[in-house]
Design a protein that fits this description.
This protein is of the alpha/beta class. The chain is built from 10 helices and 12 strands. The chain has a 6-stranded parallel beta sheet with strand order 7-2-1-8-9-12, with helices on both faces.
Length: about 350
């Protein structure tokens, strides 16, 4: 199969990537029909080499300045510049990308990582960015908010026992403590939507290639965090009952591709944990499959909250681990045909 780069369509402007706007679907559909004819772009059904592009949480809540969890990285421009490169990558490689799979972090207010879910002895809720340890939950420094029991259809004591169990399980996993995040990616809100410029590129790809994007919802379970697109942080309750389950259909789909490209936000959290979960699946089945995974290092940034926390180094260490396991760290600006083993 020949991989060729296409020009950037006339309507794309770097300056628009940081803004929120409505995609003119009918106009872009007409543009895409013309683009297909001009550049002799084949339907995705004719691809002999199946290339899937996974876009992890490329949503306003993470990618647009002044939104709730904007991922600025150390430069402050991280997600905006990432999406400028990402959008151009989609357009340039439109004829080589078989399908795009965007994940959508999807929340409502009453979830275990939001302030409303927990209270202290005085009834106060934890502030955003509070890190809550297993010990604090065990000691009752932070407890399940009893006002939520009826809403969630649970017994208050059972819910409190689960919250303590949750803290212990997180600690045993070796990951971060329970983080109280600002309300973000709220279902039905503007923050939940894809970045407009990226959405436009996905739509343009859809029409050009007759390829339906595979949207994947994650993070909507009230009782667990769900950084990874493949599975929630905690899947079983106090008595080992099922709380949530991994997305086996998505795992199987991704591992069946000939090449898998991954980008999105944030490098230190949802992207890193998605890749880590995928790597675990690979190592449990066929380690050589890591060779077909390509991580776009210039289309993702780590969480950095100036003066509070900086996950840059831990994100870089995770990517070094992925590379050592056989995955490829590549740049979107390099021609796909030059990527190692990309055929």
């Amino acid at each position: 199969m020949s991989f060729r780069e296409l020009p950037i369509p006339h309507f794309y402007l770097d300056d628009l990537v940081a803004d929120v706007w409505r995609v003119p679907y009918q106009v872009r559909a007409a543009d895409a029909h013309n683009w297909r004819a001009i550049h002799h772009i084949q339907p995705c059904s004719e691809d002999v080499y199946n290339v899937c592009l996974v876009l992890v949480d490329v949503q306003n809540t993470f990618c647009t300045p002044e939104f709730e969890l904007y991922v600025g990285g150390r430069s402050g421009y991280g997600a905006v510049e990432d999406n400028q490169r990402l959008t151009q990558f989609i357009y340039k490689n439109l004829s080589s990308i078989t399908q795009i799979c965007p994940t959508l972090d999807t929340h409502q207010a009453v979830q275990i990582f939001h302030s409303i879910f927990l209270v202290d002895a005085k009834g106060n809720h934890p502030e955003p960015y509070t890190l809550i340890t297993a010990e604090e939950l065990s000691q009752g420094d932070w407890r399940f908010n009893p006002s939520m029991a009826r809403l969630l259809e649970v017994d208050e004591n059972d819910a409190e026992a689960y919250v303590k169990h949750y803290g212990r399980q997180l600690k045993a996993s070796g990951k971060y403590d329970l983080t109280i995040w600002p309300y973000h990616a709220m279902l039905g809100g503007i923050g939940h939507a894809l970045v407009a410029a990226v959405e436009e590129a996905i739509f343009f790809h859809t029409i050009c290639r007759f390829s339906q994007p595979d949207f994947q919802i994650k993070g909507n379970h009230p009782w667990t965090e769900n950084y990874s697109a493949l599975k929630p942080e905690i899947m079983s309750g106090v008595n080992d009952e099922e709380i949530a389950r991994k997305n086996q259909d998505l795992i199987d789909k991704l591992l069946s591709c000939d090449a898998l490209i991954i980008a999105g936000q944030a490098k230190s959290h949802c992207v890193a944990w998605t890749v880590a979960d995928l790597l675990a699946e690979i190592e449990n089945s066929e380690p050589s499959l890591a060779d077909k995974i390509y991580l776009l290092t210039d289309c993702t940034s780590p969480v950095v909250i100036p003066g509070v926390i900086d996950y840059t180094d831990s994100a870089d260490e995770a990517y070094q681990h992925f590379e050592a396991a056989g995955m490829h760290l590549v740049k979107s600006t390099d021609a796909m045909a030059t990527w190692p083993n990309f055929l």
